[in-house]
Write a structure and sequence with these properties.
Layout: E1 10-13, H1 17-28, E2 33-37, H2 59-72, E3 76-80, E4 82-90, E5 93-100, H3 114-118, E6 122-124, E7 133-135, E8 137-138, E9 150-151, H4 159-167, E10 180-186, E11 188-191, E12 195-197, E13 214-216, H5 217-224, E14 245-252, H6 267-281, E15 286-291, H7 301-308, E16 313-317, E17 322-325, E18 331-336, E19 343-347, E20 350-355, E21 357-359, E22 368-369, E23 375-376, E24 381-383, H8 393-412
Parallel strand pairs: 1-2, 1-11, 2-3, 11-24, 13-20, 14-15, 14-20, 15-16
Antiparallel strand pairs: 4-5, 5-10, 6-7, 8-9, 12-21, 17-18, 18-19, 22-23
Helix pairs in contact: 1-2, 1-8, 5-6
The chain binds flavin-adenine dinucleotide.
Length: 413
């Protein structure tokens, strides 16, 4: 690194809880910060959770305070629908090219919803992991930050697009927006690009693709959310009926050399949370948790003990070998109980695959990565949150605070 950094600005890439925390900590220490997020809103995967452990709060309770801190801090500039397309230079003196995707809605939007009323077509809702559809002009979700609509590119150049534009009294719909780019001069980069769920279609033995009542843990979060596809009711996707018997399969693809060789650390706890969602909604329902061994790290042991005390939750030490299709199309979980040696074939109304956390699809440019694609911090380039490996929210915030401190030191030294 040169003796004196050329730029004192810190760039944070990724606006999940990790990136938000890093941006705030660096800005509150006096650094200028640019925060860029590829999605239309901040919040990352946490915004799509129903509630989060250990306190089982709604994600809004943690995120909203941070949004207020961002709004009040003039040192943070936020760009959504933006990604890094190029980076060159060295610690203290990076030139970064940022590319933006059109939203077709300007900051004049007040989220009144007139554009959505004028829209006639629907598109898959990425916030609900495509389990539902939204109008082609939509608010990304009810707690979106920024609270601004987006027009889907599929209606640009169509009569529907014109109707959407005409419906906006504030003239905030701009269908002429094009992809754009700009350059930044920054002294340090924090990669907080988080994670994506492991693709359940790769787990062919669990038949996610052809059994409607086999879902993943992230989909379970949306089913249980009040603003999710079923308005918070955990229902069987095949028939919208309440499940009476639910299986949660741990390590679905994790700790498996054919898929993700590592443990994602939070899936056991997430499944205990899912057991609680089911048991709260349906006190008569039975939940079976299939596990290799339970990993409830640090202080979250208490969360595990609470789940253990629930007589409606059965713990089956086994990694199921496959899921078969029952006579009525229901999933039948098959395998061997490693304690009792019993060979089982248990039918369920709903099966939830606890798939793990994989590094973001797009590797952070210019960052060193470990064998699994997670960021390894080095001089001038730091990882934060799950971009560095599987972490829960509190650990992500801790790692982001550490990254912010290192970035602030890098741009000041
Ligand atoms: C099923 C499940 C349930 C969970 N429940 C809990 C819980 O109850 N409690 C808990 O503590 N933890 C829970 N977690 C873990 C929690 O989701 C993570 O700790 C948290 O998401 C980490 O935040 P992050 O900011 O590091 O990553 P993310 O939330 O993934 O955010 C990363 C952000 O970066 C953006 N991004 C990615 N690539 C780019 C790019 N190239 N350019 C710009 N932006 C980019 C993404 O769009 C995203 O907004 C759960 C995880 C799972 C799988």
């Amino acid at each position: 690194m040169s003796d004196k950094p050329k730029s004192q600005t810190v760039l944070v890439v990724g606006g999940g809880i990790g990136g938000i925390s890093a941006a705030l900590e660096a800005a509150e220490c006096g650094s200028e910060v640019v925060l860029i997020e590829k999605a239309p809103t901040l919040g990352g995967r946490v915004a799509a959770l129903n509630r989060y452990f250990p306190k089982m709060c709604h994600p809004t309770c943690g995120l909203e305070i941070n949004y207020q801190r961002i709004k009040k801090n003039p040192r943070i500039k936020v760009f959504t629908m933006a990604e890094v397309s190029g980076i060159s230079g060295a610690a203290g003196d990076y030139t970064v090219t940022v590319t933006t995707t059109p939203r077709f809605v300007t900051p004049a939007c007040t989220a009144c919803g007139d554009c959505a009323s004028a829209a006639t077509s629907e598109v898959a809702d990425p916030f609900n992991y495509n389990l539902s559809k939204v109008k082609a002009a939509y608010l990304p979700h009810t707690m979106a930050f920024p609270m601004r609509y987006i027009v889907d590119a599929s209606v640009v150049g169509t009569p529907e697009g014109q109707a959407i534009k005409a419906a906006c009294k504030l003239n905030a719909v701009n269908l002429d927006e094009k992809p754009d780019s700009f350059t930044l001069s920054v002294g340090a980069v924090i990669w907080a690009t988080g994670w994506r769920p492991y693709d359940p279609n790769k787990l062919t033995m669990y038949r996610y693709a052809d059994l409607a009542d086999v879902i993943t843990n992230v989909e379970m979060e949306r089913l249980a959310s009040h603003d999710g596809p079923t308005k918070g009711k955990v229902l069987r996707p095949s028939n919208n009926e309440a499940p009476k018997k639910v299986a949660l399969i741990q390590c679905a693809g994790s700790r498996d050399l054919n898929h993700l060789a590592y443990c994602s650390r939070i899936c056991c706890l997430a499944s205990m949370k899912h057991a609680a969602y089911v048991r709260e909604q349906y006190p008569e329902a039975e939940v079976d948790i299939y596990y290799i061994d339970i990993r409830a790290h640090d202080k979250l042991e208490a969360f595990y003990r609470k789940a253990k005390a629930d007589p409606g939750i059965r713990w089956i030490k086994s990694k199921p070998s496959r899921i078969e299709k029952g006579a009525a199309g229901e999933p039948v979980v098959c395998g061997e109980n490693t304690l009792s040696r019993e060979v089982y074939a248990n039918a369920y109304d709903l099966v939830v695959l606890a798939t793990g956390m994989q590094a973001s699809a797009q590797p952070p440019a210019g960052a060193e990565l470990d064998e699994y694609g997670f960021v390894v911090s080095e001089e001038g380039v730091f990882g934060a949150g799950v971009a560095t490996g599987p972490l829960d929210v509190s650990m992500s915030v801790q790692s982001a605070t550490a990254a912010a401190l290192r970035a602030v030191q890098a741009v000041r030294s």
